[in-house]
Amino acid sequence: MNRQIIITASIFGLSAVILGAFGAHALKESLSPSSLESWKTAVSYQFYHTLALLFLSNFSKYRSRSIRFAYWSFTLGMLIFSGSIYLLSTTELSKINFSFLGPVTPLGGLLLILGWLFLLFAALKNK
């Protein structure tokens, strides 16, 4: 599981750097200030939870159910939360109406919260 967590974190970290740079340079002139701010929020949350995954990899040797749940919660949470914000913030540019994703974003946030809760459970169980 440790290897899987580190690989996942590496992919999320790499894509966060690329998406952050893309937003700062390529999208700066194309998006409204509020859309660009949303993009930055998605990048920030992706970075925070990439670091959480790296931290989680230190616990993975204990083969805890809480670790697996935290891993999947963080991973799916980042995909849903940040992914939906990336798409929603580029609606004006792509001319594709992603408004149906608005209600999905909080589900991703809930998964991120659950990831932290499962990490807490894993730490409390670890002696």
TrEMBL record:
It comes from the Bacteria. It holds the Pfam family DUF423. InterPro entries: DUF423. The chain crosses the membrane at residues 5-27, 39-57, 69-88, 100-124. It is a multi-pass membrane protein. The keyword Nucleus does not apply. It is found in: Membrane. Keywords: Membrane, Transmembrane, Transmembrane helix. Belongs to the UPF0382 family. This is DUF423 domain-containing protein. The lineage of its organism: Bacteria, Pseudomonadati, Bacteroidota, Sphingobacteriia, Sphingobacteriales.
